[in-house]
Amino acid sequence: MAFINLQNVTYKYPLTKGPVLQNINLQVREGEFVSVIGPNGAGKSTLCYALAGFVPHFFKGEFSGEIEVDGKQSSKSTLDEWVLNVGLAFQNPFNQISGAKYTVFEELAFGLENIGVPRDEMKVRVEEAMALTGISDLADRSPYSLSGGQQQRVALTSILVMRPRLLVLDEPTSQMDPIGTREVFGVVRRMAEQGMTVVMVEHKMEWIAEFADRVIALKEGQILMEGRPNEVLTSDLLTENGFGVSRYTSTAREAKKRGLWRKDHLPVTLDEAVEGFKK
Amino acid sequence: MNINIKDLRFTYPTGLEALKGINLTIDSGEQVAIVGQNGAGKTTLVRHFNGLLKPASGSVIIGGWDTAKYSVAKLASRVGYVFQNPDEQLFSRDVLTEVSFGPRNLGYSKEKIDELVKRAMALTELNDKAETNPYDLSPTWRKMVALASIIAMDTSIVIFDEPTTGQDAVNVGRIAHVIAELKKEGKTVITITHDIDFCAENFERVIALSKGQVLLDGHTREVLGQEETLAQTYVDPPQLTRLGKRLGLKETVTRQEEFMQAIT
Ligand SMILES: Nc1ncnc2c1ncn2[C@@H]1O[C@H](COP(=O)(O)OP(=O)(O)OP(=O)(O)O)[C@@H](O)[C@H]1O
Ligand SMILES: Nc1ncnc2c1ncn2[C@@H]1O[C@H](COP(=O)(O)OP(=O)(O)OP(=O)(O)O)[C@@H](O)[C@H]1O
Ligand SMILES: [Mg+2]
Ligand SMILES: [Mg+2]
């Protein structure tokens, strides 16, 4: 049975004219790493809110359909129960930091403290999580005196440290440096291999293709296409609908017109591009 | 209006030294990208250009004005800065008021304000959102509002702090178009970005910062070709540059057309 099961999910915010999510059906198995892509306003963040229980528990509006995670129905749970299993990293990391604490370490320990994790274990878990996201040297800094990318790393770490069964990440690398971005994708991949289920909104096609199991392309609140990363990310349908593509894909597509790309399939990653272009 | 930075050092009140001796000259009308690791000091550096931060030692001179001696309000007539986090910048109840605030504050004539606001709203395609409260918009559109409100000020120097984060292909294209328009008008554009492909396609000069110092500075192709040095500040070369290297192309390529020529 699927770990995430969305049945005919339709949702409209109190202030929007029409539905922002329309008839979404989606099944994700445990330990799968799914990436959601789509233009601005497609409903990516709203889908994240739905998975994290904020829609419809926090944002009111008109909701129909069913959201199930690990056999439990969102409609029959409270938000407090739901968030024990589902961690959401918000799109704007600047809003995620609680600021109730003096140091990054305390900020990260805060959530664990709330669920009664013993002091010794807490320390180990926070240190492990900081090492994963490369912020060990920020432990004693104030969460407010950080650069944009450092704040985003703290926000992400504060979710990872809770070890939720379902990890929902809304553009978690938007402020990160290029090599740091690739490393975060690698960390998320490893989490998935350890059994965490991941839904990650992203725009960085090269790394999605390299690390994710499946891609969901969302447009105007509907699933336009889904499938294996290479299949979705090279499809003409995406380009026709204004989605971005990796430079490997766009360049090979152009090369194909000029007879310089001879493979059937277009590339998304560096290795695929090298394979197709080499003499 | 040139920017001259000499031996610039800056330490935050926490004791952290974020800039450790920066020397740079940026000429009038240049299009410059600043890249580098999280925490390298990019935002700290550009906040010195409009006087939000003042040097601990050394100097920042904007067209003959020493920023240490001029207020942020005064410098606002020369340098526009779009914040990394738009929420630190926006405060008006609707988009039109927000975009009009800057030029109004600079004391331009009514006709000029109208014209500047109209152009900024058109360039960023915000017209259908004129009446909306910026906080009812998504973070990506809030960033566009922040951008519009700065370009409406018509300053000689415009600074964007990570303008493309979270923007889709269409909006990235809009931002590239804005930069091209500002270039045509002879303005200096300085953009901090982690999007190295965007950087390669829209800027002539790249400055790579690392741990509070300038690591590399030069023509885009020269800087972005130096894979090993860039890695010190957690930056990858553009996708096509990496591809060219792997294919053993002799020249460094950064853009599609260069790549095509090199393989034909
Ligand atoms: N709290 C809200 N109240 C009313 N409308 C909202 C709210 N949040 C989002 N919307 C609207 O819902 C639609 C989908 O927004 P959403 O933020 O989910 O898109 P997105 O795909 O995440 O976009 P982006 O790439 O800009 O982050 C948009 O039209 C948006 O304006
Ligand atoms: N308000 C502050 N107080 C103290 N230290 C700060 C403050 N803001 C930034 N710093 C520190 O100064 C250094 C440079 O930060 P800055 O914001 O300039 O980096 P950046 O290059 O813009 O990084 P990013 O790519 O993450 O935005 C970092 O070590 C950061 O932690
Ligand atoms: Mg979003
Ligand atoms: Mg910054």
Ordered list of secondary-structure elements with their pairings:
The complex is a heterodimer of chains A (279) and B (264).
Chain A: E1 4-12, E2 21-28, E3 33-37, H1 44-51, H2 54-57, E4 62-69, E5 72-73, H3 79-82, E6 86-89, H4 104-114, H5 119-132, H6 148-160, E7 166-170, H7 178-193, E8 197-201, H8 205-211, E9 214-219, E10 222-227, H9 229-233, H10 236-240, H11 247-257, H12 270-277
Parallel strand pairs in A: 3-8, 3-9, 6-7, 7-8
Antiparallel strand pairs in A: 1-2, 1-4, 4-5, 9-10
Helix pairs in contact in A: 4-5, 5-6
Chain B: E1 3-11, E2 17-26, E3 31-35, H1 42-46, E4 57-62, E5 65-66, H2 72-75, E6 79-82, H3 95-105, H4 110-123, H5 139-151, E7 157-161, H6 169-184, E8 188-192, H7 196-202, E9 205-210, E10 213-219, H8 220-224, H9 227-231, H10 239-246, H11 256-263
Parallel strand pairs in B: 3-8, 3-9, 6-7, 7-8
Antiparallel strand pairs in B: 1-2, 1-4, 4-5, 9-10
Helix pairs in contact in B: 3-4, 3-5, 4-5
Bound molecules: adenosine-5'-triphosphate (2 copies) and magnesium ion (MG) (2 copies).
In short:
Chain A is of the alpha/beta class.
Q: Superfamily at the CATH H level of the domain at 1-78 and 197-238 in chain A?
A: P-loop containing nucleotide triphosphate hydrolases
Distance between the termini of chain B: 42 Å
Determine the N-to-C terminus distance of chain A. 46 Å
Number of strands of chain A: 10
CATH class of the domain at 1-78 and 197-238 in chain A: Alpha Beta
